[in-house]
Predict the 3D structure of the following.
Amino acid sequence: MGPVKLEIRNLTKAYPGILALRDFSAVFHGGKVYALLGKNGSGKSTFVKCLSGAVVPTSGQILLDGRPVSFRTPVDAAQEGFAVVYQELSLILDFTVAENILLGRYVMTGPGGRTIDWRKTNRQAAEILESLKIDIPVTTRVADLSVGQRQVIEIAKAMAQNPRVLFLDEPTSALARHEIESLMDVVRTSRDQGVVVIFITHKLSEIRGIADYVTVLRDNTHVGTVPISEATPKMVVHMMFGETALQSRPADLPVRDEVRLKVCGLTRANKYENIDFEVHAGEILGIAGMLGAGRSELLRGIFGADPIDAGHIVINGETVTRPSIQTMKRLGLGMTMENRKDEGLIQIMSIQDNLCMAGIDAVGRGGFISNARQAPVTRRWIERLQIRAPDPMMEVQSLSGGNQQKVVVGSWLNTDPSVMFFDEPTRGIDIQAKQQIFQIMWELSRKGLSVVFVSSELEELLEVCHRIIIMESGRFIDEVRDPENTTIDQLYALCMAEAAR
């Protein structure tokens, strides 16, 4: 059988009031790797869902080797040879590598074929790993593997179904630097077996050694596909963003001389290395970088949520070598976590309880709390942050994402911090709520607080920050001191560790 040819003709997916994918047309060839790029909301996920059977397109055609195919379920897509490896892994940790790779397709024996032949099952799984040049014992429990090893096992699981089209959704986002090349080797082997590989990523610098073509989506439309040899950062970013107009931060936010936070040589193995920076009073410092750069891990290390291996932190003049959340909170640091639902809020508790959570010591008396003491605090933050809450005693999970985020912010502002970390505070919230979060940051700056802001939406950093540090693979690689005179194209190119030319 020759190389696969996948042809997409005018693929469209519409929801009530939303056109999620519009007239996507392209041709993909087997034995090639296509890097699928586009900012959040550009239509990448919808495209993959249409081709994996997760959603049914509104119109358009999918042709495999000239033959029209259509899918109503993921099972339909899998039977035609379409496989997806999602960013969130689906392995069963307590099962072995072989059990995961051949899940549901074990070699059976005995009367009626009701007994699993583990010897043959393990041998078959070993042959699959060998064909992909993966050196991991098939009897190893997946829970004992590193994240990178689990990722390649996920690919092996997909390849065990002999796919003709393989989608990889941000496969390196959670990997350490030394694990990425191992995964790339597996991708190359899959490509060499004649599979169409569509590699969803934000990291152009990372895929230069693996992709043959770059396919770009913008505003739910296929902008174009170009050979990797022609895909300069400037060209690709322009394809992704077009002409982007950004607002600017208010002019009355001066940065003061006082250093509130200083980080010296902070290191955590395989996460970040030898990080140095400082933040002044009134300054909003942005940290930019692609997924997996180590931004959130760094903030968690400083905040004391995760351990550090080396370095120290100076906050408000006090040196800390072993940060803990309790210590950093006492010294004036607050942080809204990236995963607000699991780490920022207790979903089944009330809005009032969540608003008072971080500052419980100030609200309580003698280890006890009461509605009488919580209620005025709750009213103050609901009014100040414009939280849309008809009843503060409602469960916080009843609120929209934007209002939940404001509850998290209010909870930490209740601790009277001098430094605030915002880790992806605008993820999953609407434009109006985003602007309200920005206004909160600007107000904190105006009052002399220091703010560190991590966002995957680079436009937000240009709009909000005084200064932006660029992070890649756990290191600071560059700095933007004049965001107001920096374009999104330039910032994106810096994040990809390449100069825009």
